[in-house]
Amino acid sequence: KKRHLVKTLSVLFPDGYAVDCLGPFPANANDAKITESILQLNNTFQYWCEDGDVAIVDRAFRDVIESLEENGFDVRMPSFLPPKQKQLTTKEANSTRLITKNRWVVEAYHARLKDWSLLSERIHNSLIPNIHDYARITTAALNAFRKPIFFTDDPSEHQQIA
């Protein structure tokens, strides 16, 4: 945690294919600040998305939900447990499980991205200006050489296409 780091932000489809890898951003910027800066400075979301597209985010994005909704996204985030309440309602719990299940795709992508030693370990400072290019090339390679996973509503029918 005491090392200088950079972060990237990934935009993925629900089937695990990456649309883009944006960044690098300073490591001290949280996900909400990064998203806010992307929405203000970068119009790429307008090319990729239409009004009403669903943005599945984790709780780190809670400060930027209004901005995402102003840009036409239908934002879905796991529910918070209100004070003095011991459990979520059935509807909130099911919604949270569905969101978490879809967030797994993002976490799996980041795990595959970090399998590449260039992006998972220390790099020389001279490489930092090119880190965006390295991340995008790695993202393209991950998209090209992967086995897509298709899910149905019935877990017993989950299959991986060879």
TrEMBL record:
This is DDE Tnp4 domain-containing protein. GO terms for molecular function: metal ion binding. InterPro entries: HARBI1_dom (IPR027806). Keywords: Metal-binding. Pfam families: DDE_Tnp_4. It comes from Didymodactylos carnosus. Its cofactor is a divalent metal cation. Residues 1-140 form the DDE Tnp4 domain.
